[in-house]
Amino acid sequence: MGLDELESFLRKKGAAELITEIGTGTATFNALVDAVSVSGSTVSSRLSEGVERDVFTVSHRPTEHGTEKRYELTILGRRVYDWAVQTEFERKARELRRIRQERETAFEQLVGKINRDMEIRKMVVDVDPMVDEDVELPEGTSVVQKEPSEEALREAHFERMEESLEPITDDQSEENSE
Fold this sequence. Notes:
178 residues; mainly alpha; 3-stranded antiparallel β-sheet
């Protein structure tokens, strides 16, 4: 493989990260998918391309469920890995992975807090809660406050308007007629 071909491979998304993840050991496909920040299909493509370009070798090991593929660096792959260590690329790749995991954890915590807040907002606030008392609610009732329909709002508005009207009495009509 020529220098241009190796550079082209290393510039592809996930290729250099796979080399640093395999490092001086071996790794399975699933472990690599979990470790790098690219999709499973991208990992599969890069591993195939790396095997074709003599960066990775594949060995098959028997397991209790069949055979497991393990990827290892070739001599060329180890030279690239050594340069990655010397230039601190390997350390930066691991640091980036750690930061991404922290970000994902923080995001999950954010979503959890939002969900909890939304659930709390659905509950009716009880100013005088009955502690340790069993309460039987009539069938069809809910502890979640429901918004009245538009028709119910119109009727309530109409009733309030009627309440504010003063009835006309005979005394007032006699005064107006004089």
